[in-house]
Amino acid sequence: MEEKIFICKNCRKEVSLNAVGTRNRNHCPYCLWSSHVDKKTGDRENFCHGLMEPIGLTFKDEGIDKYGEKRQGEIMVVHKCQICGKVSKNRIAGDDNPEVILAICEEINRKEVKRQLFGK
Length: 120
Ligand SMILES: [Zn+2]
Ligand SMILES: [Zn+2]
What we know:
single chain, 4-stranded antiparallel beta sheet, 1 helix, two-stranded antiparallel sheet, binds zinc ion, alpha+beta
């Protein structure tokens, strides 16, 4: 299989589109920024092409367990398009930078705690 690469528009690193375990890669593993190219996952049919900022993390909804508690699924990155404002959730890939994922998590928590303590 021919190796497909793209240059991340945010950090300018070269990203392989078909590394192991990265089917439908839609974001950069180094900075987690994405590009608005899909209408539906993997179709590459959106022509917006805006840069999508990783604005938060959430967990895949796995329903309710037998005790009525919400089951916590795998980590999803929440992306927001800087041009059209579309928000989408994406699975993280096996080679995404864990430090960057943690940094996003800390940044979100810090912002929320600050908002509650000091108002906006
Ligand atoms: Zn990048
Ligand atoms: Zn867009």
